Amino acid sequence: MLAVQLSFGSLAVVGKAVLTVIPAVALVGFRVGITAFILFLFQRFRGNLILENRSDYWRLALLSVIGVTINQLLFIGGLSMTKASNTSLLAVTIPIFTLSIGAMLGVEKLRAFKIAGIILAAVGVILLIDPRNASFSSETTIGDLMIVLNSLSYGIYVASSKDILMRNGAMKSITWIFLFASAICVPLGLYSLSSVDIAAVAPAIWGLVLYAAVIATAVPYLANAWALARVNPSTVAVFVYLQPVIGFLMAVVFLGERVGLNFIAAAVLIFAGVYLVTKK
Predict the structure, then answer these.
(1) Distance (Å, rounded) from C-alpha 142 to C-alpha 126?
(2) pLDDT tens for residues 128-152?
(3) How far, in whole angstroms, is CA 155 from its chain's centroid?
(4) N or C: which end of the chain has fewer CB within 10 A?
């Protein structure tokens, strides 16, 4: 799960760089299309793509719409219309949505220590990011709303996908999810890309697009699917709170930034929250 957060955590920065050149919908098309192609080749090498229960094709198609198509269009679109700090701050809603929806679906129990853990970790993230750095102005309102809806869609996906992932296996399930999503996202992405002068796009940007597709999409979605087949949805979701910590630590290592008391206090709260949610 730490690897998942490392991968997802880098997307905001990489995505911002790519979005200066490539439209949001085109980036989603690239991410989903490349990921679907890689997962398809990998699954074909491992075995077949046939599902025993025919109704699971429809369920995976629905999960692809909620967890990939809508989720990614909202995230990348929202990222292009708001600040990175707003995006990180609003991510605290993902575990809250996941636990609430999981409880309604009967796959989660609202135990006091889980609720306390999510609240502790959320407070830690808010302390780390500092809401004063966020700018919830009228200029970012639409982008902020898209990020909240993105968190909701991802929460629904995480909370409702456990049984089908366990039944068909993480690799086969996630491959079908991305194949279904690519049928929508790739055509939309190609249409959006028609407004861009492809020849003028720098090789470095294409490298970042590939990174966004493989490292920040294929790897974390597959790892998340593997984890969801083994632990409760709220456990998977609460690891989202580690993303800001990882981001700050990377800034210390690569940018020479200093760790202050705020960071230490926030890290303690976040790790304490993660412990409470993940303990048996």
Answers:
(1) 21
(2) 666 665 565 667 778 888 888 998 9
(3) 10
(4) C
